[in-house]
User: Which sequence fits this backbone?
């Protein structure tokens, strides 16, 4: 009895507030828009049963997504922005994780804390911090003009470059931590063995260190890529009008255009795109855990 | 012995500079006399004064804290239950679906979670406000709590529980007297994580709130959308200060607990 209660409470909670809402999204994505409250016409009633469900499905919101090039351009550009910024985060994050793993043992807890601290700090505030830095009169442009590198302030805020900077900055701890965990476990004598056997330091790095930290690299990349793909706050605070990201499109479709069926269809497709990396990520995590055991 | 090469030193220095300089600039300009956030005009604390006068901002802060306390507490209870079921529950019907529902919200884009919950609340005719935000935050936070707690449950020695049962404890007593004290640090960090996630959330709160309940992130977002303002810098500085004190003291406490635990273990070995 107690066991039943223990399982049932969290189970029912998740069913009611996670699974059922999804089914509703799916249902509304297959409904017609209407100028009403709520602004959609339900495509079917639950009571009519399965046959009616399939008979009345209506894919016009999805055909609309394909026909209007705003949407697929937004998906492609989110994909491109997420991929590029994941790569940039890896390039910035790997040397930091590597330096942490090679730092003296007694420094490491402090370094760890320094990486984790920004993660606990408000995401919104960390994105906001860059607004003041990147603006035309901002700190970065003042600095660049002072050094004489540029004579006119660069337009960085409200461009896609600012979005890249924002994503790299906010998601950096997610990249550093798994790579650091992998590197810290690594046995140093492996590098020494490689060097003794005639590897240069660089080739020992490529042939030994990188393959051994592969699990951490993969985990870090997914942890950056998956949330970056649906990102809303960064493009809307730092990006410009030409920065297309699907999270922002969904938000506007819902709040500005009040077209709920299209917003739901956008969400369904975004989820379908993300299923592949999510499944790959789970597999990688499982493999890592089995490797530990 | 590991050696820290020049390359390591440079990458660590640049890396941490990149992580911290933006926040330091933000803090610096909260003490600026001028309304311009980019030109230094002398030291002043007037923006903190104005912040304290800002009724709407204080009201939003209160709503946010209320939501965070309720949602993180419920999420900790549900998440710990879910973790216990996942690690100790054995087989039951729908276990795969259950674990899927625990891991999925962790990687779900916030816009989708927010949208789907809003559609649910409208569907069942629930008025949007503090209650709906608490429900929404509890749902995604319990998954984080459950992951943190289950990793602790999975690594600890089960024979301790079995010993308690052999010595005549009931299941409930064994949980209360043995399991709970051991997983307590994980439960506490789960609560802290849930609390922070709730304080910080903009997207899900925007979808699930009504006109009556505005949270601090919603307020900040609508203010900074238009541009930078020193008042927001002042607010950010206060928030960064609280988090810094919290994280540093948490790490000191856990370090001390670890030292104490090691000493006790050594004592036990010596007496044995």
Assistant:
């Amino acid at each position: 009895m107690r066991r039943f209660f223990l399982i049932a409470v969290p189970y029912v909670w998740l069913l009611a507030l996670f699974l059922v809402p999804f089914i509703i999204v799916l249902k509304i994505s297959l409904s017609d828009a209407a100028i009403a409250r709520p602004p959609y016409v339900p495509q079917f009633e639950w009571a009519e049963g399965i046959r009616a469900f399939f008979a009345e499905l209506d894919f016009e919101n999805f055909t609309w997504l394909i026909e209007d090039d705003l949407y697929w351009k937004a998906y492609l550009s989110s994909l491109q922005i997420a991929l590029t910024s994941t790569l940039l985060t890896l390039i910035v994050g790997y040397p930091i994780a590597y330096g942490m793993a090679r730092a003296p043992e007694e420094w490491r807890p402090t370094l760890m804390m320094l990486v984790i601290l920004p993660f606990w700090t408000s995401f919104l505030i960390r994105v906001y911090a860059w607004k003041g830095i990147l603006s035309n009169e901002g700190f970065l442009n003042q600095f660049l003009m002072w050094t004489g590198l540029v004579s006119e302030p660069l337009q960085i805020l409200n461009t896609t470059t600012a979005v890249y900077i924002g994503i790299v900055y906010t998601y950096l701890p997610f990249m550093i931590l798994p790579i650091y965990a992998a590197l810290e476990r690594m046995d140093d004598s492996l590098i020494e063995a490689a060097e003794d056997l005639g590897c240069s330091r660089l080739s020992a790095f490529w042939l030994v260190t990188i393959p051994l930290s592969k699990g951490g690299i993969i985990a870090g990349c997914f942890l950056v890529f998956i949330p970056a793909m649906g990102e809303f706050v960064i493009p809307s605070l730092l990006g410009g009008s030409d920065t297309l990201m699907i999270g922002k499109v969904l938000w506007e479709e819902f709040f500005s255009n009040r077209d709920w069926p299209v917003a739901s269809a956008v969400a369904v497709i975004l989820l379908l795109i993300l299923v592949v990396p999510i499944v790959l990520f789970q597999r990688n995590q499982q493999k890592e855990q089995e490797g530990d055991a | 012995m590991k050696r820290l090469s020049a390359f390591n030193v440079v990458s660590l220095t640049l890396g941490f500079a990149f992580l911290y300089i933006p926040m330091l600039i933000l803090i610096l300009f909260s003490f600026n006399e001028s309304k311009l956030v980019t030109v230094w005009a002398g030291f002043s604390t007037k923006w903190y004064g104005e912040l304290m006068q800002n009724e709407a901002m204080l009201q939003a802060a209160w709503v946010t804290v209320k939501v965070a306390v309720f949602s993180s507490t419920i999420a900790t209870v549900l998440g710990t239950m879910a973790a216990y079921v996942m690690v100790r529950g054995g087989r039951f019907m729908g276990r795969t679906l259950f674990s899927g529902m625990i891991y999925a919200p962790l990687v779900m884009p916030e816009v989708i979670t927010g949208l789907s919950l809003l559609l649910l609340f409208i569907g069942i005719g629930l008025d949007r406000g503090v209650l709906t935000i608490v429900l929404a935050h509890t749902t995604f936070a319990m998954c984080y709590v459950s992951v943190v707690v289950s990793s602790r449950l999975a690594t600890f020695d089960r024979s301790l529980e079995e010993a308690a049962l052999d010595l005549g404890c009931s299941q409930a007593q064994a949980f209360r007297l043995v399991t709970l004290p051991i997983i307590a640090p994980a439960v506490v960090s789960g609560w802290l994580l849930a609390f922070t996630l709730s304080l910080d959330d903009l997207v899900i709160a925007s979808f699930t709130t009504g006109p009556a309940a505005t949270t601090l992130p919603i307020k900040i977002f609508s203010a900074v959308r238009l541009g930078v303002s020193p008042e927001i810098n002042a607010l950010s500085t206060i928030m960064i200060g609280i988090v810094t004190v919290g994280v540093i003291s948490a790490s000191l406490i856990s370090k001390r607990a670890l030292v104490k635990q090691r000493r006790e273990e050594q004592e036990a070995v010596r007496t044995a």
